[in-house]
Known about the structure:
By secondary structure, the chain is an alpha/beta fold. It has helices at about 25-40, 65-70, 85-100, 110-115, 135-145; strands at about 1-5, 15, 55-60, 80, 105, 120-125, 150-160, 170-180, 180-190. The chain is globular. The N and C termini lie far apart (about 40 Å).
Amino acid sequence: MSRIIAGSRKGQRLLTPSGDATRPTSDRVREAAFGVLASELGRVGDPASMLQGCAFLDLYAGSGAVALEAASRGAAPVVAVEKERRAVEVIRRNVQQTGLKVRVVASGVDGFLAGEPTPFRLCWLDPPYQLGNDIIAAVVARLAQGWLAPDAIVVVERAHRSGAFDWPDRLGDRWHRRYGETTLFFATEGVA
């Protein structure tokens, strides 16, 4: 079981899917990641409004903890995309339990990205660790085709042993942070 770290629902516990279908982002990694995002956005002060006005896309959403954390911190609209049926049910229960506005899309990432692009300011990808870096690079390249708002930030969570992947040229500043066995890769929209 995990919890929301900060914002309007700080401390609220979240359900997690049973079994090996998903691997929830740890509270520690989420806390660190949202600190980095706040810094990059130049947002300080009340955690409940730090992401105010930022559209947030959570691909491979798992339990929905990242999307719910974003919504708790004021992001809107927030969209969580997940294809695993049990995980989708857990996300929907978490959304109902928290009362946060998160749109849950029961779909694979490829199917979702085949639709009409809607720009997001923040895009989070937490794909299964066994998914190859070539697939991750293709998904991020697809995001760069209309899914990223100006000054968007893309975050990709990977196992440290997975190594880096190729970012599309359109994404400019790139950096990463390691948290134990997890590495978060960040990039901003703009010319490299």
